[in-house]
């Protein structure tokens, strides 16, 4: 496919706000997980929590969208020169020629939880007055908020495909740009911690009481996290340098509501499609950020699919030991990590894990490495077999 230029990019996670915080923690192997301190009756687990959101209300003119998820979206949007880069895109193309495509899993359901809890406590028949804001209680809360916060007037979409949400936004935006519908796009994703997420995943038997250990032989579940991130995409000019989206692959195997296909069919289809669209061989990929949630089934199946496709020289890892599984924000966060690997040559290993699962191929690496690479990939796999893989590279002049 024609390359898509990445003009600006950022992520805010439990490691801190902005790219520098992510890069420094990855290089130092300093994780952001902590014992769960979220909610009135914290589940005994570990989480990746973003500090400071409780004390960071939205600006007064955006108060109608007030909730934890939109607070994190606003904070994330202020990092790494995103406002200035977005203003430059709008000046070049006009606000109606810049799309907004964002992913989320639970959107602002935390505000809905609060509304029900307070209504029940007060014996009321409806939400408290300050939470009677219908847009905040819809899956499109994030997209609507960002459209008003950014002033963009192009197509505005919220993608909700579970944990692949903010990877699929890159594919959606690329199609809009290639079709000539828009000239550029603001893409990203945000998901925040809430009771539905923590206790819902625990009810599925997927939450570990200890920090997650991706691809470890003794792994017993995931650690949940929250995060936000964005990237600005624009049609690349011939021969230009810089970081680029070079390919995407999507699949929906629909094998099971929550379990991956036992042979990794959907994962394999997405990875192969991304490589084909990028026009490269599997052996050209230097780093692959695995979905690697630290659940027994997911990691084993993904490792098998990777071993079947890639040579032993690949450096592949899961970075959820640093950030936790950030659900609908995982795609953008781990794409940012792939971009850091491309930019800095820092190839993360895996935190907390010590004994590789016997089913892992040599591609799965526990230790960090340092070397220049030409291409980096990111895998994001969601419930229902909704899968997305992305390929990033550098332009010819970089």
* N-to-C SSE string, H for helix and E for strand: EEHEEHHEHHEHEHEEEHEHEHHEEEE
Quaternary state of this entry equals: single chain
Helix content: 25-40%
User: Helix/strand-derived class?
Assistant: alpha/beta
The stretches of 5 or more residues where confidence is low (pLDDT under 50) are none
Q: Distance between termini?
A: 19 Å
**In total, how many beta strands?**
16
- Give the number of helices: 11
Radius of gyration: 20 Å
Residue-averaged pLDDT, rounded?
95
Q: Sheet bearing the most strands, described?
A: 11 strands, mixed
Could you write a compact summary of the structure shown?
The protein is of the alpha/beta class. Helix content is 32%, strand content 21%. Strands 1, 2, 5, 6, 7, 9, 10, 11, 12, 15 and 16 form an eleven-stranded mixed beta sheet that branches.
What brief labels describe this structure?
32% helix; alpha/beta; 11 helices; 11-stranded mixed sheet; single chain; 3-stranded mixed sheet; 398 residues
Explain what the structure shows:
With 398 residues, the chain is α/β, with parallel strands linked by helices. 32% of the residues lie in helices and 21% in strands. Strands 1, 2, 5, 6, 7, 9, 10, 11, 12, 15 and 16 form an eleven-stranded mixed sheet that branches. It has a three-stranded mixed sheet with strand order 3-4-8, with no helix packed on it. Strands 13-14 form a two-stranded antiparallel sheet. Helix 2 runs parallel beside helix 5 (141-150). It is globular, with a radius of gyration of 20 Å. The mean pLDDT is 95.
